[in-house]
Structure formats: structure tokens, C-alpha cells
Specification:
Strands 1, 2, 3, 4, 5, 6, 7, 8, 9 and 10 form a ten-stranded antiparallel β-sheet that branches. This protein is of the alpha+beta class and 172 residues long. β2 and β3 form a beta hairpin. The protein contains four helices and ten strands. The chain is 21% helix and 39% strand.
């Protein structure tokens, strides 16, 4: 019975992901992520949050060696990320807030979020094939990160993004 339940759960997980493009994964119908080229555990993507309906919420999950320092002390603080889309470095850095940090074995993992209000920026990302993200500030955070830059395959984002509905609920 336990094996049957496990198989059933795995099947549901696979069905949920089967509609996303090959390099994108849909998690719990609320998050759409792709993994880093340098560090597979790094994640870049989007999430649905009805409390922020109508806005895009961009996510980053980033790991660092636990011996480098305490990522947790930066919870609630902002980090700035330089964005390079298909070889074009954007003029303005994006501000991500460290929402949560925790230990995972010999690694510390931080979960960052940014509310993006620019539709043209999101459209540019949807049409891209690769994005490179580099943490630039604050310096105290940069010292903790053993890897400051990673790139992500964004092909298929336009098709996969339609799986996330971040619209406001209709009130009747």
C-alpha cells in the first residue's frame, strides 16, 4: 500500500510538470522554476501570490558554503542583482529581499523574492533564451556567497509562464 501511495504521488508530480517546458518545473501550481547552469541547486523563477495579484513575483534560491558566514542574519534585508539577458546587461539592478535562509547540511540556502511591476521587463525575459544573475550588493552579503553569478536557461518561459495565473480574483 505504501509503494502504491508513493507511486501515485510521484505520478501527480510528473503530471503537473509535464505541461511546463523541458527546463522549467511547475511546483505546487504556485512556482515556476529553472535551475542554474553553474550550481544545479540555484533556482530562478516566478511565483503566484494572490496577495500581490496583478504583479509578477520573481524568485531566487541561492546556496553558499555554511563556513562562509551566516546568511540568516540578512533575512528581511535587500540584495541587489545585476541582470544580463541574452548578453545585454540591464542598466538597473533588481532589488531582491532575502525572505528566508536556512541550513541544509554543509550549505546555507537563501530564498529571495522581488516584486516586478514592469511588464516590458517580464516580456523581455519571456522572449529570452538565457539570463545571467550576479549579486552586487551589499558587500557584507557578497563576502558570504562563494558563487556570486549563475546563468539560467530561459527558453520556453513564454509558454510555461501561462501555467501561472497571477490575476486578481473576480469579486461578484
Amino acid at each position: 500500500m505504501k509503494k502504491l501511495l508513493t507511486l501515485f504521488c510521484l505520478s501527480i508530480g510528473l503530471i503537473g510538470n509535464s505541461f511546463a517546458e523541458e527546463n522549467w518545473s511547475l511546483i505546487d501550481d504556485t512556482r515556476l522554476i529553472t535551475r542554474g547552469d553553474i550550481v544545479w541547486g540555484h533556482q530562478f523563477g516566478f511565483m503566484k501570490d494572490l496577495s500581490l495579484c496583478g504583479y509578477d513575483v520573481m524568485l531566487l534560491s541561492w546556496s553558499t558554503d555554511i563556513s562562509n558566514g551566516k546568511l540568516k542574519k540578512f533575512e528581511g534585508k535587500d540584495a541587489y542583482v545585476q541582470i544580463n539577458i541574452d548578453g545585454e546587461v540591464l542598466d538597473q539592478e533588481l532589488e531582491f529581499t532575502l525572505m528566508f535562509a536556512g541550513d541544509f547540511g554543509s550549505m546555507e540556502i537563501g530564498y529571495f523574492g522581488a516584486i516586478v511591476k514592469s511588464e516590458s521587463f517580464i516580456e523581455k525575459l519571456k522572449q529570452s533564451s538565457r539570463v545571467e544573475l550576479t549579486f552586487t550588493k551589499p558587500k557584507n552579503l557578497i563576502k558570504i556567497l562563494d558563487i556570486k553569478t549563475d546563468s539560467f536557461n530561459t527558453k520556453g518561459l513564454n509558454q510555461s509562464y501561462t501555467l501561472l495565473d497571477n490575476s486578481c480574483p473576480v469579486i461578484m
